[in-house]
Design goal:
The modification 4-aspartylphosphate is found at residue 52. With 121 residues, this protein is of the alpha/beta class. It has 5 helices and 5 strands, in the order E-H-E-H-E-H-E-H-E-H. The chain has one domain: 3-Layer(aba) Sandwich (Rossmann fold), CATH 3.40.50. It is globular.
Length: 121
């Protein structure tokens, strides 16, 4: 099954997403800030990165730019309450593949991940 990194600084949301995705059979690594996420990305291979927009140390946007500068082509989905079209476009222009607005339901997230990783399974 696919390996996913979740970078989210809100502990309750992180726990909910991890529990939901593990119940679906995914292997999940967690990071609570952008620096921890970046270190995990350098050490491991992931099928998908789920990044929060607003995190300590490095924002999700800064993290995307760093990842792409390293020529890492892993699929990236940004999770953010900043859901205006200009914010979404900024994220996609930085190199994210997908954007999901907060709040979202766990079912929505699972369905979206299945769509993204369906061909990778």
């Amino acid at each position: 099954m696919a390996r996913i990194l979740l970078a989210e600084d809100e502990e309750v949301l992180r726990m909910l997403v991890v529990d939901t995705l593990e119940d679906e059979g995914y292997t999940i690594d967690e990071a609570c800030d952008g620096e921890e996420a970046y270190n995990l990305i350098k050490e491991n291979e992931y099928d998908l990165l789920l990044l929060d927009y607003m995190m300590p140390v490095y924002t999700g946007l800064e993290l995307i730019e760093m990842i792409r500068k390293d020529n890492n082509q892993t699929q990236i989905m940004m999770l953010s309450a900043k859901s205006q079209s200009s914010d979404q476009q900024k994220v996609l222009d930085a190199g994210a593949n997908y954007f999901m607005s907060k709040p979202f339901s766990p079912i929505q997230l699972v369905q979206r991940i299945e769509e993204i990783l369906g061909d990778a399974e």
